[in-house]
Amino acid sequence: MPKINKLLQQTFIELYETQRWTPKQIADQFNVKERTVIAVVEKRDKTDFCLCCGKELEQTPGHRQKEFCSPKCYKKWRREHVISSSAKHICLWCGKEFIDPFHINAKYCSKECRDNSYRKNK
Are 88 and 98 in contact (CB under 8 A)? Predict the structure, then answer.
């Protein structure tokens, strides 16, 4: 079975999109599994560059596709793109009023309150 490199991936995508070959036809022609071809043509729109800094990413086949090159870039991007909520919430455990800018439907003011509530309801 041939190794699926970038050139072979591009060939699969081209045959699929322009020639209208089915994944089964491509798999039979190149002696690969049909699900491999499906994975390649379905993931063709995934990013290969960090959404924050634009650095090229090295994707690992069979794993979730990376969107960021580092945790630092992820945090920077999230800070700039996540909608901040200033809504006030009431903690279901202690009754304290709190603001959680990252969770619109926050139920607990802290991890400790959440854990206490889960332990009680177990």
Answer: yes
pTM over 0.70: no
Residues 112 and 91: beta-carbon distance below 8 Å: no
Half-sphere exposure at residue 78, Cβ-oriented, CA atoms within 13 angstroms:
10
Closest CA to 85 of 71, 98, 73: 98
Residue 120: half-sphere exposure toward Cβ, Cα within 13 Å: 9
Q: Which 8-state DSSP code applies to residue 65? A: P
What's the CA gap between 102 and 2, in Å, rounded? Answer: 46
pLDDT tens track for 32-81: 888 888 878 776 555 577 877 778 788 887 888 888 889 998 888 877 76
Q: What is the dihedral of CA 42, 59, 73, 88, to 10 degrees?
A: 40
Mean model confidence pLDDT for the chain: 82
